[in-house]
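Sample pair:
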Amino acid sequence: MLSLDSSLLIVSDLDGSLLDHHDYNWNAARPWLARLKQFRIPVIICSSKTAAEIVPLQEQLGIAGSPFIAENGARIVMAGEATGTGAPAAAYRALCRSLQALRSRFCFTGFHELSDADVADATGLTLAEAHLSRLRDASEVLLWRDDEQRLEDFRIALARHGLALTRGGRFWHVMPEGCDKGHALIWLQQQLEQQEGKPRITMGLGDGPNDIPMLTRVDYAVVIKGAGTKPVVLPRADEEHVYYTTLAGPEGWREGLDYFLLNPAMGARAEDKQ
């Protein structure tokens, strides 16, 4: 099996993965989080959430101070880095102005147009959590109110503004072109390798289409059963390094770690890679 003593790095999505899709609890993941901390195996959050949301979550999860990837890869925060001033960033405001130019052609609502109460109603977050979700640095969350058939036209229009569109677990996300969880992970791995002087074996866990770029780049991928009608299928040939869970949310998160870290068949494969 993959060894808890190995140079392992866990990369995890939040909503619908480590956190329950409906009530955001993570009770089923507690034992594994404690065990990973005991063996000093880093857990890197890789989420569509903002940096302002992730920092207090890291405190709750017992992984405070670790690097993380926010806003689907549009924001990377290294250990000890400051995470903002309590207001939306200039890059985010510029992105929203670009979206405004498309309002005459497409029907959508961005988080910047909503109040904290509106976001809380749409997401199930508390008012305080909803406020943090609106402190964005470089991407926007959209409630798509147009015909689904017009999404491709919307992608083309966004591209003319240097923007891209991706689907998360609940909403659509707009970000600068070239930003995704996979590219962000590669950059973060390079930084960690320079600091530590060695590469790490990576295991990624996620449930949504926006997790695919990350899950295709990790050594071992756990695709957690999602809430959507279309299951996520990875374009990978190494099927033995991919596991599709039968359970959703933190229960699926635990199931994936059980499979790769408690499965004797993983041992020889991990040793071959090392």
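Confidence is low (pLDDT under 50) at residues 270-274.
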